[in-house]
Write a structure and sequence with these properties.
Length: about 250
């Protein structure tokens, strides 16, 4: 699966059928793109906002957080990155004008569904911003979203560029995708939850009813559903340390 945009509509195509495109209906000006590792979700910067789109490019959410405006002069820079599961958005920013004395780089980690600020990091240098977003992206992560790689510079220019690596002690807990999203209310169905920050001993509940959980890795849980009341189900995931995250209308039971 490929994702492509040159300051225009976003297009997706499959390598097995390169002449068949899916194109976003909106003619958003887009130059900063990221995709979940399994291709189920995309993040992009369009018209000054972050958009989350599904694999068919339908608009899933526009995450927003009032906390992002708490830094005077905050400036977003290219490099918006999705956690491999799509659960989190990593948004790089500057604390002031590029190249200005005292300007630093930072990374906001947001919930991919609600846009809630989960973690804010400040870097010792600013991002290298003398390359535009079509020719440079200044942030990426490893396969678990735990190690961050940032192109930084003491003054924002290439001659003073460096690679800054940040290791998170813990990746924020988050929900990416649930497959399948429609299940039997009778219980006993197997679901796969993709997300972030899962630990051995993570628990899962649907509308308050506990499921049987098998920990696969930090991004994947296998779940067997309990008996459920038909209808939409709220998902709640809790780590052994008490960190919890929820998602309304996560699945439908019928």
């Amino acid at each position: 699966m490929r994702l492509h945009s040159l300051r225009g509509p976003v297009a997706v195509w499959n390598a097995s059928a390169p002449n068949q495109f899916i194109t976003a209906a909106a003619n958003d000006t887009t130059a900063d793109l990221s995709a979940a590792a399994d291709g189920t979700m995309f993040a992009l910067q369009a018209s000054g906002r972050t958009e989350i789109r599904a694999s068919d490019l339908s608009l899933s959410s526009i995450p927003s957080s009032a906390e992002l405006t708490q830094i005077p002069g905050r400036l977003s820079v290219p490099g918006v990155t999705l956690h491999p599961s799509g659960a989190l958005i990593y948004q790089p920013f500057l604390t002031g004008a590029p190249g200005s004395a005292g300007t630093r780089g930072g990374i906001d980690i947001l919930d991919g569904h609600s846009g809630a600020l989960r973690l804010r990091l400040f870097l010792p240098q600013q991002f290298m911003t003398d390359v535009d977003g079509l020719h440079g992206s200044f942030l990426t992560t490893d396969e678990n979203g735990q190690r961050l790689f940032a192109l930084t510079s003491s003054d924002g220019t290439a001659p003073n560029a460096a690679l800054t690596v940040v290791q998170l002690a813990n990746v924020p807990l988050g929900v990416g995708t649930i497959s399948p999203s429609i299940t039997s209310a009778a219980g006993g169905a197997s679901l796969t939850i993709r997300g972030s920050g899962f630990q051995s001993g993570t628990t899962v509940a649907f509308n308050g009813k506990m499921a049987v959980v098998s920990f696969k890795d930090a991004n994947t849980l296998s779940v067997v559903t309990p008996v459920l009341t038909p209808g939409v189900q709220q998902l709640a995931i809790t780590n052994p340390d008490g960190e919890t995250v929820s998602l309304d209308a996560a699945i439908i039971a019928n």
